[in-house]
Amino acid sequence: MLSGTQLDGVALVVGSGRGIGQQAAFSIAEAGPRVIVFADLNEENAQASAEESKQYTSNKSHEATYFHVNVTDEKGIQAMVDFVIERFGSLDYAVNAAGVDNGVHTPVAEIDIENYDRIMNISAKGTMLCVRAEAAAMRKQTSKTFTSRNGTRDIGRGAIVIIASANSFAGLPGKGCYTISKHAVMAICKMAGLGHAAEGVRCNAVCPI
């Protein structure tokens, strides 16, 4: 994912206990940031992933730690971001991969509202809470520069990546709750990107098929 890229600074990966979030965090480790914080609802998985990342890092000073978080908890999300800033001094990169799909295939007329609320709370509201807290922290930071043989350029105050889905653009029969939540996730990405670009905070999405 980040082949040939060298990162500096502090990365936070939410939903990194397993799956795409975990693999994204491992790819970030290969790019050599100073710190990666593995955040997940499953604290045991987050701790194990943080420890495993040390095998892949290209930075001898690499530090990996973990943080227990429930993405539907507004105060918990803020505590997570505050932890990163207070302990490591900055939040330079954030990946938001927490989401859920219970695998139930039903047409819209048969959607269970309790299940709908659960998926929307985790995937949509959870993403919004994370991005809101991350962007609020990043916009306060000093803009960084990158120097190469082509000169020095401004690279902004921070970068946010959201793990969305191909379902953020198209629907599949019976995947109503999941598709609706992923469309919402893409809207969050667009609005964060538009709203904070001028402040040097980037927000982009990755959409696995």
Automatic annotation (TrEMBL):
SUPFAM superfamilies, alphabetized: NAD(P)-binding Rossmann-fold domains (SSF51735)
Top-level taxon of the source organism: Eukaryota
Keywords attached to this entry: NADP, Oxidoreductase
Protein name (database record): Oxidoreductase
UniProt record similarity statement: Belongs to the short-chain dehydrogenases/reductases (SDR) family.
PANTHER family xref list: DEHYDROGENASES, SHORT CHAIN, ESTRADIOL 17-BETA-DEHYDROGENASE 8-RELATED
PROSITE patterns for this protein: ADH_SHORT
Annotated Pfam families: adh_short
GO BP annotations, alphabetical order: secondary metabolite biosynthetic process
Molecular functions (GO terms): oxidoreductase activity
Organism: Aspergillus arachidicola
Matches recorded under InterPro entries: NAD(P)-bd_dom_sf, Sc_DH/Rdtase_CS, SDR_fam
